[in-house]
Design a protein that fits this description.
heterodimer, A: 229 residues, alpha/beta, four-stranded parallel β-sheet, 10 helices, 4 strands, 7% strand, B: 146 residues, six-stranded mixed β-sheet, 23% helix
């Protein structure tokens, strides 16, 4: 019935303590909400003619092939499931299946109440998603904690943990509302300039900075591969 | 439909074996001494005719003067139910005997009570927080928690 300590290699109390410590640390450093990503606002102004057509093509491709990751936390999840099922049919907007793995997804629909105990997991799944990635906060709890915003265990809005692109209000929002939110996200993706961003960033780097950047990437890869899954 | 047993009748049977155990009898619930909880629970589980083989849930109530822990028992064989209660007057360090040895289902329930109400259960195999994380201060379902 109980998991034996030898089987996983370290004592269970240590696992609990490490988990508690991680939660406390995350809670301490996420007291302020992360500002919403709004770079696309200036992108519209800064976009130059030369790369616009390539950007438009990339955006078109990205927009109609968004892969959502499965992140149902509470009652909102059922509206999300209804959205995915035949009656409302999320595949009309280019999202066929909810992926169980963050590695294959670029959109996270946070549907439901996020507790502090779940928060590190949410952050980890977000970190595991490949760039470019977007987040939709679905329902009152995901937006601000909802009725539980002053609770001892609930995160007052998922934007304390991850940057949020689109907020879908409601308690829970109807599938139409979620679909509307996804259309808004499509519009937002359409305004991004993937090539422009990359080129501008690389151009702005000095030689030293480029070297440093490459070393940084190498270090990160070593960290990821060395640690395993 | 599960029929609730009349508490006074069951009480007589318990009182025959454990005269000091009964504190109070309500219509559908029996309040017993916490020191005799395990014996009474064992009696209710094993006595033919009662056979309370299933513990539906364990709840805890904070009355400020004392904590009350409520056990809802069901017999699958006879399809009847009973409510058993114990009180705990110590607010600083409340301890009650664990019934996990009788009903395995009490494991998570008692952990929940421990987590949110701060009542320890002696004899529990794995008493630690279940909903909140290790390092959380206080027990949030207590009425004086703020």
């Amino acid at each position: 019935m109980e998991i034996e300590a030898e089987k996983i290699g370290y004592p269970l109390e240590e696992v609990d303590q490490a988990e508690g410590k991680a939660i406390e640390e995350l809670k301490a450093r996420s007291q302020q909400p992360i500002p919403d990503p709004d770079r696309w606002l200036e992108e519209e102004v800064r976009r130059n003619i030369f790369i616009t057509s390539i950007d438009a093509f990339l955006d078109w491709g990205r927009r109609y092939s968004v892969w959502p990751v499965n992140f149902g936390l509470a009652c909102c999840a059922f509206e999300m499931i209804a959205t995915a099922a035949s009656r409302f049919d999320i595949s009309r907007f280019g999202m066929e299946i909810f992926r169980p793995s963050p590695r294959q997804a670029d959109l996270m629909i946070v549907a439901g109440t996020l507790t502090w105990k779940m928060a590190p997991t949410l952050r980890r799944i977000y970190d595991q998603m490949a760039e470019p990635k977007w987040v939709v906060a679905m329902g009152a709890c995901a937006i601000s904690g909802g009725t539980f915003s002053s609770s001892y265990s609930v995160v007052p809005g998922v934007n304390h943990i991850v940057p949020v692109d689109v907020y879908v209000p409601g308690c829970p929002p109807r599938p139409e509302a979620l679909l509307h939110g996804l259309i808004m996200l499509h519009k937002k993706i359409g305004k991004q300039s993937p090539l422009g961003e990359a080129i501008r960033e690389l151009k702005s780097l000095t030689r030293e900075e480029t070297k440093k950047r490459i070393e940084e990437y190498r270090g990160r890869m070593r960290q990821v591969l060395g640690r395993g899954i | 439909m599960t029929t609730p047993l009349k508490a006074p009748e069951v009480t007589q049977e318990i009182a025959r074996h454990f005269p000091e155990a009964i504190v109070e009898v309500e219509e559908k619930a029996i309040l017993v001494q916490s020191s005799t909880l395990l014996q009474v629970a064992q009696f209710l589980k094993t006595t033919p005719g009662l056979d309370f083989d299933y513990l539906t849930y364990v709840a805890a109530v904070d009355y400020l003067d004392y904590f009350e822990v409520v056990y809802h028992l069901i017999s699958i064989e006879h399809n009847h139910s009973l409510v058993l209660k114990v009180r705990c007057y110590d607010r600083e360090n409340p301890v009650l005997p664990s019934v996990v040895s009788l009903w395995r289902g009490a494991d998570f329930q008692e952990r929940e009570v421990y987590d949110l109400m701060g009542i320890s259960f002696s004899g529990h195999p794995n008493l630690k927080r279940i909903f909140l994380w290790e390092g959380f201060l206080g027990h949030p379902l207590r009425r004086d928690y703020l």
